[in-house]
Design a protein that fits this description.
Blueprint: H1 3-18, H2 26-41, H3 46-65
């Protein structure tokens, strides 16, 4: 086994032992999850909700034809 293989194997064992499969990328993952959670919890602006409603009403007659 070469030094690179030995170092890689040791790093994989440390990740598995710590229960952190992402290793150094864990902080990035946490920040992305935090951003996503904030984005999902935001309410939909009234104008956007109105546009979605108009699109749904416009698409309903098309569904009845099929």
């Amino acid at each position: 086994m070469t030094k690179n293989n030995t170092a890689g194997a040791a790093m994989n064992r440390r990740r598995a032992a710590s229960g952190d499969p992402l290793g150094p990328n864990s902080e990035i993952g946490r920040k992305l999850k935090q951003y996503y959670d904030e984005l999902v919890s935001d309410s939909v602006p009234d104008r956007f909700a109105q546009l979605l409603s108009q699109l749904e009403r416009a698409a309903q007659p098309e569904r009845k034809k099929d």
